[in-house]
Design a protein that fits this description.
single chain, alpha+beta, 3-stranded antiparallel beta sheet
Length: about 230
Amino acid sequence: MEAAESETNAGPDKNGEETRKPSPNEPPAEGLKDEGKEQAEEKKEGKAKENPETEQQADEGETAKAEGEAEKLHREKEQLEQQIDELKRELEEKDNRYLRLYADFENYKRRTRNEIEAIKKYQAQDLIADLLPAIDNFERALKSEAKSDDAKNILKGIEMVYRGMMEALAKAGVKPIEAVGQAFDPRYHHAVMQEKSEDHPSNVVLEEFQKGYMLKDRVIRPSMVKVSE
């Protein structure tokens, strides 16, 4: 009986090689393959049909995750915007501070420059103010009358010295203030008397008692005068 089965299952082919014949109970190989594929697909579809809630939960989880990432990015954006605003405010404050410091420094330079120019311009003021009483004495002496020849010679010498001093003062920027016949100006005139005058209107300088002087544009001493009422 074993020999019969051997004859049924195997035998040489035309080339002398043995071939295996399928058993009557064994299904074809291709049929098995197709059947396995169909079963896998049916199994997959079955799982998909059996677990719709699982897929929905997975989708909801992905959506929640995406929303969480979006919210995180939004918070980070707000934080960055706040930092940018703070940096802008700090920069603006520093700019304003710099502008104030720059303005203060420019004012300081201008004041210093003006002070230096004023010192140069009026550096002889104290010396001139000390010389004015001597000049007043020279002018009083020149108004006196000389009767003798010696007195006349002395007056000539005094006049020469006086002229030399006035020329030196003029070179330094000193000039006398005009008074008699001018309208009274408290910036340049110091009124010590008032007198009615039919020949002059009110507030006109009638007489000068002491000459006033200016150094360039600054009054060193105002003129002492008598003014009409």
